[in-house]
Design goal:
Strand order of the largest sheet of chain A: 3-7-1-16-13-14-15
Structural class of chain B: alpha+beta
Number of strands of chain A: 35
Number of strands of chain B: 5
CATH architecture of the largest domain in chain B: Roll
Oligomer: heterodimer
Strand order of the largest sheet of chain B: 2-1-5-3-4
Number of helices of chain B: 5
Structural class of chain A: alpha+beta
CATH class of the largest domain in chain B: Alpha Beta
CATH topology of the largest domain in chain B: Ubiquitin-like (UB roll)
CATH superfamily of the largest domain in chain B: Beta-grasp domain
Radius of gyration of chain B: 16 Å
Shape of chain B: globular
Number of domains of chain A: 3
Order of helices and strands of chain B: EEHEEEHHHH
Radius of gyration of chain A: 28 Å
Shape of chain A: globular
Largest sheet of chain B: 5 strands, mixed
CATH class of the largest domain in chain A: Alpha Beta
Strand content of chain A: 25-35%
Number of domains of chain B: 2
CATH superfamily of the largest domain in chain A: Aldehyde oxidase/xanthine dehydrogenase, molybdopterin binding domain
Distance between the termini of chain A: 85 Å
Largest interface: A-B, 59 and 60 residues
Strand content of chain B: 15-25%
């Protein structure tokens, strides 16, 4: 019988477990247009909501007249702050410990702020009527410059906080101040700078950008008056958080709120927060007794929900003359807009920004961040990165290049000299993080060898000479970036959202026939969770991935979880999945021992079965054990085969990577051409290489967009000038470069399967790599730092400033 | 608002309906015909998530009134697979080559690629990239979408698909 049994390797391959390029389960519905997104939902009697928004960035509201709007046939109700006050919902708490207006209460603080919510029988009528809400404004002075926010004569943004000397994160030093947050050792850092051989200092600005997923934020609220229950479908990256926050705000008991996140058309951080649209739709459904749909349009999306970055980082590095870094100092002004609605773990007002020492062995560092209020939209989400990590990576990677330039060293050589060495892991950074694992020099060396870095530098040198001789008007830049991410938030000792520890969960039920279902507290927005979680289970339990259904996004059925963002699904819920599997496997082993009449310890695991040690012909497959779990468990054992795990990670995970970019810049037009982009990522254990590669392509494309063109720009009057896809750069297939991907594998030592998470690495590493490439192109002409975005116009301006058009 | 009678062919079936003159084609398809494959991603005709085929051309259905399509022949993603459920080569290619992630751009992207391959059955990579430049994708970085379209082109042409070396 043995010769008919497939080998272990053949059986393993059939499972489609970890490490295989399993095709995605989700695609079957998506390629046929059968995805189920929020706006596809149609309920009987459903109404549509639309906002009247402020044209002013800062103004007092002297009058709101809804008479004309309410008179439009088909309009059912119009909500204003006054209406919301009757249910105590004119303001709502933010995730960051601040409060935020749901509808403008007395004044508006940013352009396009929500002023009134019109509910009508169809979306066209709602839009018509929203235009007929008459609002009288009295304009106030506007400030959109965070560096001027704490001036003595700056306009006061938040009159509601006028007398509050303390905010959610300690003392406030100005009426427009949100918080000050520090990490590292200030005195030691100052001392290191005092005796430094060489120092650099630069104001490095990461402009305000927006995640801009293709599907905007939207929801349908349906309140059942008889049962007193609310069902809320929405584009939620964190459905359980929405349920809990929804309950706290609305006072509807949490068990009477059902939150459902169906398919989501991309999130990238945009869909973490709680927005006015959700609250208004809920109130509207309670008021009207009918389901209410709210769907953001693109302009509303870009100008009101969830900006990212807007970090203004004055950065210094100290180093020895021979190129060893000795200290880092960074003072940052963070523009939080009109309300602090940052999506961070609650104790971290500047997120995990103190990862700013990056991949380098800095003996000491000090970081200080001041958050300020301005007349801009609130938000502050992590646009495809862990909380504020891309800001830190951009900052350190630009600063390292600036220092290399000052020292006259090659930027790659300078990095090699300062990268944390393999034997230093686990490594404690100067700001207190414990990096779990890494092999940075191997990664950097592999990257440099693959692109033939030496030859590129020689070519660049020849081109620079040709440029100087006037033989070409192109300059060539080589961008190098080595990043370390901190993801997988996170350990409960460090991370919570409104007091809820940032664990995550998986519940697995194996059915009698050896198939099963896994439900999780995370929520895919394109990451392919239905495919990859099943692969973890396939490997752990020896059941084919095709036999495992994965379900997320229904708070009634899924175990509690904190959702998907900050590359936390694999590090946290992936770990929970593996741990739940191991509970199931332990029970299955006891059943197998009983059936085979041996001791538990006499069994060993072989791909999809337990077999008797030394007698491999005696075995029970997992499928057989699943059946047995429902009809012949050992005496005293509970029947069934299921487990749940809430995983509180012992540490964050620290994916890393080495990226190299080659760009050619035409100094007369400012046009840039990415000739080559090589990305080496180390995300620990690789679950599905196809999906990893796809995520890296996507993240690099977003990084390309950010570095080369994206900015949410405001004029001096607070008008947002980039609020549509006419003006906000999303790369098309034509501009997008070709991506070369590569990897090394350094498993996380504390994660059950060694996986670290990958989705955000390319954004974190990609942005500084593009920026360094453009800067490197101009470095030989005396340029030190050219700010993002590197669009053609700004690049032309930079060339002009260098006198290249004389 | 007074309604207008329209009639057209949608995915091979005759359809007639009453619509407001201002009803956009995308809303007519999604809300009256329940064809929710095409999506709305922007307000400015840039993203292409709403792309459908009208009388042999790719059109952005958010920028046409339903009345303008009256008398026309429309194909949406729902009309792409064969009657027996067999996926079109493009649908298969998108899955095989991992040409999608969140799936929101996919219906528009496939319908656009369908027309592209009829206009040019053997497009070069550059021609594919230009040909789909009216359709934005935020997840994939396009590289695998290009491969998916090459896969489909090869299958439809009966030639072997060769994945370009990385």
């Amino acid at each position: 019988m043995n010769d008919q049994t497939p080998t272990s390797a053949e059986r393993a391959e059939r499972l489609q477990g970890m490490g295989c390029k399993r095709k995605r389960v989700e695609d079957i519905r998506f390629v046929q247009g059968k995805g189920n997104y929020v706006d596809d939902l149609k309920l009987p009697g459903m109404l549509y909501g639309d906002f009247t928004r402020s044209p002013h960035a800062h103004a007092r509201i002297t009058k709101i007249d809804t008479t004309k709007a309410a008179a439009v046939p088909g309009v059912v109700a119009v909500l204003t702050a006054e209406t919301l006050k009757t249910v105590n919902l004119a303001w709502m708490p933010t995730l960051a410990g601040d409060v935020q207006m749901v509808l403008a209460d007395g004044k508006v603080l940013f352009q396009n702020q929500e002023v009134a919510f019109v509910i009508a029988e169809d979306r066209y009528v709602a839009a018509d009527a929203a235009d007929l809400v008459e609002v009288e404004y009295e304009a106030l002075p506007v400030n959109v410059d965070p560096l001027k926010a704490m001036a003595s004569d700056a306009p006061m943004i938040r009159e509601d906080l006028k007398d509050k000397t303390d905010g959610a994160h300690g003392a406030r030093k100005h009426y427009n101040h949100v918080f000050n947050w520090q990490a590292g050792d200030e005195a030691a850092t100052d001392a290191a700078f005092d005796k430094a051989d060489v120092t650099i200092k630069e104001l490095i600005v990461y402009p305000r950008v927006h995640p801009c997923p293709l599907e905007t934020c939207q929801c349908v609220a349906s309140f059942d008056k008889i049962k007193g229950e609310l069902t809320l479908w929405g584009t939620f990256q964190a459905p359980h958080v929405i349920r809990t926050v929804g309950s706290l705000i609305s006072k509807i008991p949490e068990h009477k709120i059902h939150v459902i996140a169906p398919d989501i058309g991309g999130g990238f951080g945009n869909k973490v927060g709680a927005y006015s649209g959700y609250i208004c739709a809920i109130v509207a459904s309670i008021v009207t007794g009918r389901p209410v749909k709210w769907v953001e349009d693109r302009i509303e999306n870009l100008s009101t929900t969830a900006f990212a970055r807007d970090f203004h980082m004055e950065t210094e590095i100290a180093a020895t003359r021979d190129g060893k870094v000795t200290a880092l100092r960074c003072y940052t002004i963070a523009d939080h807009g009109a309300f602090d609605a940052c999506a961070n773990a609650t104790k971290w007002p500047a997120g995990l920004f103190s990862i700013i020492t990056g991949s380098y062995d800095f003996p000491t560092a000090h970081v200080s961040v001041d958050g300020v209020y301005t007349n801009k939209a609130p938000g502050g989400v992590a646009y495809r990165c862990s909380f504020r990590v891309t800001e830190a990576a951009y900052c350190i990677e630009r600063a390292m290049d600036i220092m290399a330039q000052k020292l006259g060293m090659d930027p790659a050589e300078f990095r090699m000299k300062n990268l944390i060495r393999r034997e230093q892991f686990p490594y404690t950074s100067a700001t207190g993080w414990q990096y779990d694992s890494g092999d940075y020099h191997t990664a950097m060396t592999k990257a440099m060898e693959t692109v033939n870095y030496k030859a590129l530098r020689e070519e660049q040198k020849a081109k620079q000479e040709a440029f100087r001789r006037g033989e070409t008007r192109d300059v060539m830049g080589i961008g190098v970036a080595f990043f370390t991410e901190i993801v997988g938030a996170g350990p409960s000792r460090a991370c919570d959202i409104l007091g809820i520890a940032m664990f995550d969960s998986a519940e697995i039920r194996i059915h009698p026939t050896g198939t099963g279902i896994c439900r999780l507290g995370t929520k895919s927005q394109g990451q392919g969770h239905e495919t990859t979680y099943a692969q973890i289970i396939a490997t752990e339990l020896g059941l084919p991935a095709d036999n495992i259904a994965v379900e997320e996004g229904n708070t009634d059925t899924a175990p509690y979880g904190l959702g998907t963002y900050g590359s936390r699904s694999t590090p946290v819920s992936g770990a929970a999945t593996a741990m739940a599997c191991r509970k199931i496997k332990a029970k299955a082993q006891m059943i197998a021992a009983y059936m085979l009449e041996v001791h538990d310890d006499d069994l060993e695991w072989d791909v999809d079965r337990f077999r008797v040690k030394g007698n491999p012909e005696r075995f029970k497959t997992m499928t057989e054990l699943a059946w047995a779990a429902y009809h012949e468990v050992p005496p005293g054992m509970e029947p069934g085969l299921e487990a749940i795990n809430y995983y509180d990670p012992p540490n964050f995970t620290f994916p890393f990577g080495a990226y190299i970019c080659v760009v050619d810049v035409d100094v007369d037009t400012g046009e840039t051409k990415i000739r080559r982009f090589y990305a080496l990522d180390d995300c620990g254990t690789r679950i599905n290489p196809m999906i990893i590669e796809g995520q890296i392509h996507g993240g690099l494309t977003e990084a390309f967009g950010i570095a080369m063109g994206q900015i949410i720009h405001y004029d001096d009057e607070g008008n947002v000038t980039t609020a549509s896809l006419m003006d906000y750069f999303l790369p098309t297939a034509v501009e997008t470069p070709h991506w070369e991907t590569d990897w090394t594998t350094t498993p996380s030592p504390h994660h059950p399967i060694g996986a670290k998470g990958v989705g955000e690495s390319p954004n974190v590493g990609g942005v500084p790599c593009f920026a360094n490439a453009v800067n490197d192109a101009f470095g030989f002409l005396g340029s030190t730092h050219i700010a993002m975005p590197h669009d053609h116009w700004r690049t032309w301006m930079a060339a002009d400033k260098l006198g290249l058009h004389a | 608002m007074a309604k207008t009678q329209i009639a057209m062919k949608v995915n091979g079936k005759a359809v007639d309906a009453l619509v407001e003159p201002r009803t956009l084609l995308i809303h007519f398809l999604r809300e009256q015909l329940n064809l929710t494959g095409p999506h709305i991603g922007c307000d400015t005709s840039h993203c292409g998530a709403c792309t459908v085929d009208l009388d042999g051309k790719s059109v952005k259905s958010c920028t046409l009134f339903a009345v303008q399509a009256s008398g026309g022949d429309i194909r949406t993603i729902e009309g792409m697979a064969a009657a027996d459920g067999t996926l079109h080569a493009l649908q298969e290619g998108f899955r095989e080559m991992h040409g999608l992630q969140c799936g929101f751009c996919t219906p528009g992207m496939i319908v656009r690629a369908w027309r592209l391959l009829q206009e040019n059955p053997s497009p070069s990579e550059e021609e594919i990239r230009f040909g789909i430049s009216g359709n934005l994708c935020r997840c994939t970085g396009y590289q695998n979408i290009v491969k998916a379209i090459q896969y489909a082109a090869a299958k439809l042409n009966g030639t072997a698909f060769q994945e370009a070396a990385e």
